[in-house]
Structure formats: structure tokens, C-alpha cells
Structure to design on (368 residues):
């Protein structure tokens, strides 16, 4: 039971990934569907619930571990941006952009926090002297506030980079001759992340009892983020399935759009050296593009494949209601992840402020 409680969020994400795995098997390996069904029937006939439980746990945990890692990168990738029409178009809702926006607005109308770390009740020497140590992130915090004091470039999808009349590059500030670019915004997000991770570590060191709400928020983030990613996969596969039977042209346009997004992202990903993370999002986009090409080429009306007996497939078209349901679940999970991410970041920042402002408790007198 202890292992289940530790890996609960991973198992939930893996279980939510099973529907699109079954859809993929049905779409791409239709000739082997009967074999899969016979294998499942054989497992049921064995009447070994313990063995079936172990296999199900191993499958969902392995699948959930992979999906959770890809989903984390997919929703926190800054490679998808483009300059056009004197504007910067980028994804304004990523984990880093949400965190930067929350971090910036938390200190927008306040002075820069003092460079001190929260006092620890476990440190008797600190309690005796009531002294503080230098916060290593104080410099990053100060630089972040000086670069963007009004929070004008955080959490936005479209940012103007040139003046509409003179077409000159827009600078960050009159005293800072730095043009607004995607690289500069990424540097701002890195500064905020560096400070935030230090705050998070300081708060989490208080123990699990004091951070029960934070642990719940973190588990919800993992589950909702995985659910949103699984929803995107399910919606895309269902969309290609439906469009192949109803509007093949729309499906081809969507598949090429996935490829275009993948090319934009991969060009920015490998343009930065050294490469700090694998191209998970790019891999996902290209995989979905290839899946769309396969489904549209083999499942379009009048081009149904044949089974081993030479008979045409009797697959029924996907009802449009299923597509709407998949889109609704995807949007709901994405909004839930967004809101929970904001709550988690706010809780970390304000908890750290409360710890930093709390006076150190006097040391207990020694027994005579």
C-alpha cells in the first residue's frame, strides 16, 4: 500500500493513457486486434487476480512515468514561438510563464524582499544570535524586478517588438537598451525559476505535515497535466478518425499544421547550445503528424483497408459527439491544470514570505 500511495499520481496518469493506447491499436494495428482480445480473454480465464493486478500495475506505472515526463516538458516548452508582423507570437500558458507571471505580480507593488532565508527552529545557533544568512537568489530577484517592474512581458501570447510608427525595436526600459526578444523573455523566466526553486526547497524542508496542502496541489498538477496531455492525444486521434470519414481535407490541413509547429519548435530547440533537454514536444508533434497521415491515407472514404480474408473493413465512422466529448475533457483538464499551477506557485511564494518575515524564536534555556 505504501508503494501505491507514493506512485498514486503516476498510476492515475497511466490509467488515463490507456484509452488512447487502445485507440491507437485499433487504428494502426487493426489486424492484431483479435490477437489482443484473445490475449485478454486468456488472462481472464486464468482466474489469477494477483497476477493480473501486478501486470496492470506495471503497465500503468510504466506508461504513467513516460506520459508524465513528456507532459511536463510539453507544457513547459519555450521553443514554440515566431516573429511576424512586428510582434512575437508565443505560448503564454506554460509552466514557466505561469510561474513568472505569478512571481512578478506577487512583488509588483512591494519592495524587493530582504536577502535572507527563513530561520529554522532546528538551528539553535541561529535562534541564539537571531542572525540571517545571505540569500543566494537575492541578485537574481533584484535583476528580475529591475528588468520588468510592471510585469508587461509575462503570461502574454502576443508581444509587440517594434514601434508601430518608426518600426524601431522596442526596448525593455529607457535605462535598459535591451530589445524585446524571445531569448530575453526566456532569460526572465529562468531568473524567476531560479528564485522560485530556492523558495520551494526552503518551504518543503519544513516537512510533510506543514506542507500537506502543497503536496495535494503538486499531486493535482501531475494528474491534471497528464490528463490534459492524454486528452490532446485522444482528441487528435479521434479527430483524424472522424475527418478521414467526413472531411479528409480538414484532416490533411490539421496534420500539416502539426508538422509546421514541429518544424518551428525543432528549429528553435537545436539553435540553442548546449541542448538542455530532449525534444519531447517536437517528437510528439511529429508523431501526431505521422499518425494523421497514416489514418487519412488508409481510413478515408472509399479507401478502407482489407483484412487477411480479403474483405473490406466494416469499421463504423466515429460519431461527432465523441470528438466533442474529447475536446471538452481536454479543455477542462487544461484549465484545471492552469488554475492549480497558479495556486501552487502562490502558495510557495507567500509561504516563503511568511517564513522570512517571522521572527526567530528564542532558544530554550538550558537546564541548571
Amino acid at each position: 500500500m505504501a508503494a501505491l500511495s507514493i506512485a498514486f499520481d503516476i498510476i492515475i496518469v497511466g490509467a488515463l493513457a490507456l484509452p488512447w493506447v487502445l485507440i491507437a491499436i485499433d487504428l494502426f494495428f487493426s489486424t492484431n486486434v483479435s490477437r489482443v482480445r484473445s490475449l485478454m480473454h486468456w488472462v481472464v480465464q486464468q482466474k489469477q487476480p494477483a497476477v493480473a493486478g501486478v501486470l496492470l500495475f506495471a503497465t500503468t506505472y510504466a506508461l504513467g512515468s513516460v506520459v508524465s515526463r513528456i507532459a511536463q516538458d510539453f507544457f513547459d516548452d519555450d521553443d514554440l514561438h515566431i516573429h511576424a508582423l512586428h510582434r512575437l507570437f508565443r505560448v503564454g500558458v506554460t509552466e514557466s510563464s505561469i510561474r513568472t507571471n505569478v512571481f512578478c505580480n506577487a512583488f509588483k507593488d512591494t519592495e524587493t524582499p530582504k536577502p535572507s532565508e527563513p530561520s529554522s527552529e532546528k538551528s539553535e545557533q541561529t535562534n541564539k544570535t537571531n542572525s540571517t544568512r545571505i540569500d543566494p537568489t537575492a541578485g537574481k530577484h533584484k535583476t528580475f524586478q529591475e528588468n520588468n517592474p510592471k510585469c508587461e512581458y509575462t503570461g502574454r501570447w502576443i508581444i509587440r517588438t517594434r514601434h508601430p510608427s518608426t518600426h524601431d525595436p522596442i526596448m525593455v526600459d529607457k535605462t535598459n537598451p535591451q530589445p524585446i526578444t524571445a531569448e530575453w523573455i526566456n532569460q526572465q523566466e529562468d531568473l524567476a525559476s531560479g528564485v522560485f526553486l530556492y523558495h520551494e526547497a526552503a518551504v518543503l524542508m519544513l516537512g510533510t505535515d506543514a506542507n500537506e496542502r502543497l503536496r495535494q496541489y503538486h499531486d493535482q498538477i501531475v494528474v491534471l497535466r497528464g490528463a490534459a496531455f492524454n486528452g490532446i492525444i485522444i482528441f487528435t486521434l479521434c479527430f483524424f478518425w472522424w475527418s478521414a470519414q467526413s472531411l479528409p481535407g480538414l484532416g490533411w490541413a490539421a496534420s500539416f499544421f502539426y508538422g509546421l509547429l514541429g518544424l518551428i519548435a525543432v528549429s528553435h530547440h537545436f539553435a540553442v547550445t548546449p541542448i538542455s533537454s530532449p525534444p519531447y514536444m517536437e517528437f510528439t508533434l511529429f508523431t501526431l503528424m505521422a499518425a494523421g497521415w497514416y489514418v487519412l491515407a488508409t481510413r478515408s472514404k472509399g479507401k478502407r483497408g482489407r483484412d487477411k480474408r480479403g474483405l473490406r473493413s466494416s469499421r463504423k465512422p466515429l460519431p461527432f459527439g465523441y470528438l466533442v466529448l474529447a475536446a471538452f475533457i481536454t479543455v477542462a483538464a487544461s484549465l484545471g491544470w492552469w488554475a492549480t499551477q497558479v495556486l501552487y506557485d502562490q502558495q510557495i511564494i507567500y509561504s516563503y514570505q511568511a517564513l522570512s518575515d517571522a521572527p526567530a524564536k528564542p532558544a530554550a534555556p538550558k537546564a541548571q
